[in-house]
TrEMBL record:
Pfam families: F420_oxidored (PF03807). Residues 4-52 form the Pyrroline-5-carboxylate reductase catalytic N-terminal domain. It comes from marine sediment metagenome. Signal peptide: none annotated. This is Pyrroline-5-carboxylate reductase catalytic N-terminal domain-containing protein.
Length: 53
């Protein structure tokens, strides 16, 4: 079963969870989307982890 995960807020806690999900191969970057009010934060998470923002 393919899992899609969305994060409302891409702060420190969200980034830590994303990093863990990817490191442990629980989810793929293509299946993770992040929403944050700060464009710079969305861009950073997209660049660093390959997630959609």
């Amino acid at each position: 079963m393919e899992m899609r995960i969305a994060f409302i807020g891409g702060g420190t806690m969200g980034e830590a969870i994303i990093g863990c999900l990817l490191k442990k191969n629980i989810a793929m970057p293509a299946n993770i989307i992040v929403s944050d009010v700060r464009q710079s934060r969305r861009e950073l998470l997209s660049r660093e982890y390959g997630v959609s923002a």
